[in-house]
Amino acid sequence: MDDRWIIISDGPNSNHELIVRMYRSWSGFKAFAVKIENVHVELCTCGEIEWPRKKDMEEEAVITKIIRESDTSRFGEIDDKFAKEMVLGVFKNVLEVDLIGLPDEETNG
């Protein structure tokens, strides 16, 4: 199966939190939501266009929670280890973001 995803992010909010939602492209079902904290950005302006840019910070953003799909009819059984591996793979291979570590505990959603 191809590694194709629809990935949507919300934030960062005023608490410097970002939620990344990952949907399988072939079904449209949400597979995972990832909460990332300590996300610091500033708006850059080029003419009339504004976009976020990471601020230079001493602390890195941290994944604090992985919420996985709990409906087994959509994806079958997804355990914590598989959820971590899948999220790591999507961040690395699809988003081209290297992660240093993942949280030890996940929550079914």
Features:
109 residues; alpha+beta; 5-stranded mixed beta sheet; two-stranded antiparallel sheet; 39% strand; disordered C terminus
Please give a structural write-up.
By secondary structure, this protein is of the alpha+beta class. It has one domain (5-108). The protein has 2 helices and 7 strands, in the order E-E-E-E-E-E-H-H-E. It has helices spanning 72-75, 80-94; strands spanning 5-10, 18-24, 30-37, 41-46, 49-54, 62-68, 107-108. A hairpin with a 7-residue loop joins strand 1 (5-10) and strand 2. Residues 105-109 have low confidence and may be disordered.
Beta fraction: 35-45%
Radius of gyration based on Cα positions: 15 Å
Taking the alpha carbons of the first and last residues, their distance comes to 24 Å
Write down the overall mean pLDDT.
75
Biggest sheet details: 5 strands, mixed
Number of helices: 2
Could you list the spans in which at least 5 consecutive residues all have pLDDT below 50? 105-109
Taken from the alpha-carbon principal axes, the silhouette is globular
Q: What level of helicity do the residues show?
A: 10-25%
Structural class: alpha+beta
Give, in spatial order, the strands making up the sheet with the most strands: 1-2-3-6-7
Number of strands: 7
Q: H/E order of the elements?
A: EEEEEEHHE
Number of domains: 1
List the helices and strands and how they pair.
Elements: E1 5-10, E2 18-24, E3 30-37, E4 41-46, E5 49-54, E6 62-68, H1 72-75, H2 80-94, E7 107-108
Parallel strand pairs: 6-7
Antiparallel strand pairs: 1-2, 2-3, 3-6, 4-5
